[in-house]
C-alpha cells in the first residue's frame, strides 16, 4: 500500500499526503491546519441553459444527457 504515517496517531495517511498528520488529527489540533484548495462553487443552472442541454434533457435518456453535459462542460 505504501504511504507515511500520521505523526500524531500513527494511522497510514497515504503516499501523496502533503501534511504530516491525518485529517482527523489536524482537525483536533490547532498546531496542524490542513488547507483545502478548491474551485469556487458556481451555479449549476447556467450549465443547462444551452439549447443543446435542453434538447438532451427533453429526451429523458440518461446516456444522452451525460454526453451533452460532458460536451458542454469540457
Task: Please characterize this protein's 3D structure.
With 74 residues, this protein is mostly helical. It folds into two domains: 37 residues, no CATH class; 36 residues, no CATH class. Helix content is 36%, strand content 7%. It has three helices and two strands; from the N terminus they run ββααα. The protein has a two-stranded antiparallel sheet. A hairpin with a 6-residue loop joins β1 and β2. The protein starts with a strand and ends with a helix.
* Estimated radius of gyration: 21 Å
- The overall pLDDT average reads 77
Helix and strand pattern:
EEHHH
Q: How does the overall form come out from the CA principal axes?
A: elongated
Proportion of helical residues: 25-40%
The largest sheet has its strands arranged as 1-2
Compute the number of strand runs.
2
Helix-strand layout with pairing:
Blueprint: E1 4-5, E2 12-14, H1 23-28, H2 51-59, H3 62-73
Antiparallel strand pairs: 1-2
Helix pairs in contact: 2-3
Please supply descriptive tags for the structure shown above.
74 residues, mainly alpha, 2 domains, two-stranded antiparallel sheet, 2 strands, 36% helix, 7% strand, elongated
